[in-house]
Each structure stands twice: as C-alpha cells, then as structure tokens.
Specification:
By secondary structure, the protein is α/β, with parallel strands linked by helices. It has 2 domains: 7-18 and 108-230, Rossmann fold (3-Layer(aba) Sandwich); 20-104, DNA polymerase, domain 1 (Orthogonal Bundle), CATH 1.10.150. 48% of the residues lie in helices and 11% in strands. The chain is built from 10 helices and 6 strands; from the N terminus they run E-H-H-H-H-H-E-H-E-H-H-E-H-E-E-H. It has helices at 19-33, 43-62, 68-82, 88-101, 112-119, 133-142, 155-158, 165-175, 189-198, 227-230, and strands at residues 7-10, 124-129, 151-154, 182-186, 202-206, 220-221. A 6-stranded parallel sheet has the order 3-2-1-4-5-6. Helix 1 crosses helix 4, helix 2 runs antiparallel to helix 3 (68-82) and helix 3 (68-82) packs across helix 4 (88-101). The longest helix is centred in the N-terminal third of the chain and has 20 residues, at 43-62. It is elongated. The protein starts with 6 loop residues before the first strand and ends with a helix. It binds magnesium ion. Magnesium ion binds at residues 11, 13-15, 186-188.
Length: 231
C-alpha cells in the first residue's frame, strides 16, 4: 500500500490493552484472595455472573440511574447475592480490590506488541483514550508499551470524550499531524470510528469478537495481525 499515513492513533482499552482478559484475571485473583470458594464452587461461575451483573449496572450508570461509586461495590454485592451471600462489607472490599488491581494487569490483545514493533519507526504513534490519566498511564507502563507512543491524549485533559471532534483536533495538533495523513484504530464504533469520521480522518474498526453489525465503516479487522498487511 502507498504510504499515505504518517500518524497512527490507537485507542487503548480493548484495542491494545486486553480489558476483558485483564478483568477476568483480577476476578480470578479475587476469588482466591477472598476465599469465595466457601460460597461459589467454581471461579468461572463467579466471573460469568459478575460479567452479566456488571453489564446491567453499567447500563444503569450510563443512563444516570446509579452513581459510579455505587457501581463499584454494588456489582459485587449483587454477584455475591446470586450465591446466597449477603455481605455488603465484603462487596465493598472486593470493589476496592478490583479497581486498584485492574490497571496493574498486563495482558494485551494478541499481536499487540508485534504490531507496535512492526509500525515503530515507520509511523508516529499516539494514543487517544477516554480513560482516566492516572489509570491509563499505569496500564501503559506496566504492560511495557508506553515507549511506542509519542503522545497520549486523555479526554480528561481535553475536557471532552471521544467521539467529540475537539479531542481529535487536539490530538492532531499535538502530534503536528493532519487529518489526511492520520489513521485512527479502535474497537468502539461510536467513540473511535464515528469520532474519526466526524473529522474526516480514516479509521479501522477493530472488531475482535467478530460481532455482527451494519455500521458504515472504512475498514474492519478482527485481529491486530491484519495490520501487518495493511500498514
Ligand atoms: Mg476501546
């Protein structure tokens, strides 16, 4: 392919940093750490129940029905209730443990490092993330990929989240790039892809779980290794 791009902007969570697997790792540690085997027979039951409840509570949170602080422990309280364990204090402790330990995890999406290594030097690479600065920096440093990126743009600092055009404009400006010579890669259709489309920046939709959709997209990949061919 003709070298059109000079700058590549990556999303972090679920694009490079394997949010779902890292979460499962922490949940599995929680199962051991808090002796949950007394109530729950197998770790995978704990994890799958948590994931369903967490999803439901996130929907409530997004719709402004519950506060973030409430979400933290409530998702564990409700998970424990499913196994006949009514213990709010334990749920609080687990909620704190989860939030503190999650960013320390280091599982990346398959081929993340190989791809970054392949692109390194050929392109300038950057991150645009809606996550909190403190947390995202821990993830980047602990998983040893921070050095690949020229700049990390945090929605927190810009004051708006993806897909707001302002965060893309600031990112482009900060990188000394143009929308034309830049490419956005991310897993979130709304935040990453629509955001890029609004500022007329090319994008690649990373659909790791091969979910069916009828989104209007430029290009889709299901594995980061496909980038070896494209870039
Ligand atoms: Mg993401």
């Amino acid at each position: 392919m003709e070298r059109k791009y000079e700058h590549i902007f990556f999303d972090l969570d679920r694009t490079l940093w394997h949010f779902d697997e890292n979460s499962r790792k922490v949940l599995s540690d929680i199962y051991d750490e808090f002796d949950l085997n007394e109530n729950i027979e197998v770790t995978s039951d704990f994890i799958s129940t948590y994931e369903i409840i967490n999803e439901e509570l996130w929907t409530l949170y997004r719709n402004g029905k519950i506060a973030k602080e409430q979400l933290r422990s409530e998702r564990f309280h409700q998970t424990l209730l499913k196994f006949n364990c009514n213990n709010e204090l334990l749920a609080d402790k687990i909620g704190d443990y989860y939030v503190n330990h999650s960013p320390l995890q280091t599982i990346l999406l398959p081929f993340a490092v190989d791809v970054l290594e392949h692109l390194n030097g050929k392109y300038q690479m950057h991150i645009i993330t809606n996550g909190f600065e403190e947390i995202q920096l821990i993830k980047l440093n602990n998983s040893k990929i921070a050095h690949y990126f020229n700049q990390v743009i945090f929605s927190e600092k810009v004051g708006v989240k993806k897909p707001h055009p302002l965060i893309f404009k600031q990112a482009i400006k900060g990188a000394g790039a143009t929308f034309k010579n830049s490419l956005m890669i991310g897993d979130d259709y709304y935040a990453d892809i629509c955001g890029a489309q609004r500022v007329k920046m090319d994008s690649i939709y990373f659909n790791f779980y091969k979910e069916e959709h009828n989104y209007k997209i430029d290009r889709e990949i299901n594995c980061l290794s496909e980038l070896f061919e494209i870039l």
